[in-house]
Amino acid sequence: MEVHRLRNLLGPDVLRARLEHEGVPRTTLSFYRYVRLLDVGALRHALYREWEALGVLGRTYVAPEGINAQVSVPTANLDAFRTALDARAEFKDMPWKIAVEDDGRSFLKLAITVKRKIVADGLVDDAFDVTNVGEHLDAATFHRKMEEGALVIDMRNNYECLIGHFEGAYLPKADTFRGAIEEVVGMLERRSADPLGRPSAEPEILLYCTGGIRCEKASAWLKHEGFSRVSQLHGGIIDYARQIKAEGLQSKYKGRNFVFDERLAERITDDVVSTCMQCGTPSDRITNCREATCNVLLVQCEACAAKYDHCCSPSCREVHQQPMEVRRAWRKGRSTRSTRTKAINDPAALRARIAKEEERLAAGHELRAWPRAERRRGQARSSWLEARGPNNN
To answer: 77, 95, 138, 282: which is deepest, by most CB within 10 A?
Structure first.
């Protein structure tokens, strides 16, 4: 197979339809390993050929420092997939984390990308010992240390921990991993500072994240910063959910677990720990704004999803409901908002913005300045399509 064809060439609608008609059960799983890899470009191509033949979908990063994968595998091919991984010494016996909830639609395509790092942590690895990581704890030990008063820290971004987290955990406000690490170090330094100059006891620190990979770097960085009593939840939230079910333990994690695939979240417990950002009612339904030049993540209840047509605001709804030609003209030259802001960070500001936009609409004003020529063409085409009817293709 030619190298230039070792990538997806189909659009999302085609991929979604193909997956819907596939008709085979799938298993979503994730794995990572920090290991020295050589010629990652050639490895990437080899993995693509192997995995495509097995029907694997998903997102994988390979870098000189290792591999980080979230994939969906036809359940009948799991053994063959394990055999293919184990055939490479670098990946032999690599632990898997199986998804808690799986509808078989977690990924639409196979994407394997060569990166400089397998997690965008913003850290200079030469500045600290990346192998000096915290102790890995199973669920029962993690529970015991929580009960003994250890400080629990969520090492995910703000929008991830919003819809679910451990009881009493410190939840970072940052929306990047590097920002979260800096915030946590600052918080720990403030905790250890005594205004009278007296020495204070170093806290025992328990870290957790989605699947464990970010805690590897975070624990090593915290130890580099002088915090020696650092441990981490083995396998992250995903494996924690498996452990508590297998051992009959009561979950100390409440709510849903954010995941980076089409599902966006999987439920760990029935607790709802967040509220709709638009109306304030209890909800942990997380979604992206449907307006393509916005696309920010937000918590949105079903009622607000219907009211705002799955958009974050009336102004985005106004764009989303325009004919395609008008939307294309509007998007031309505009960057996607979510490239700058991944998620809504200030629900109160969002609700204030919605109120102002609703006032303008009630007064008969439009919320956007539309390219008039494109709008007339879009409206004309919409009328023509309606006149033709749904069966006149």
So the answer is: 77
Active site residue 209: yes
- Interacting residues of 242 by C-beta distance below 8 A, sequence separation 6+: 97, 98, 100, 235
What is the strand order of the sheet 205-208 is part of?
135-137, 230-233, 205-208, 151-154
- Report yes or no: 254 and 165 within 8 Å, Cβ to Cβ: yes
DSSP 3-state assignment of 107?
A: coil
Same domain membership, residue 8 and residue 68 = yes
Q: Which domain holds residue 75?
A: 3-114
Residue tagged active-site, from 161, 209, 289, 304: 209
Domain count of the fold of the chain: 3
pLDDT tens across 144-176, in order?
A: 999 999 999 999 999 999 999 999 999 999 988
Cα separation, 146 vs 151, whole angstroms: 7
- Rounded to two decimals, the pTM is 0.84
DSSP assignment of 281-296 equals: -B---EEE-SSTTT--
**CA-wise closest residue to 370 among 313, 314, 332:** 332
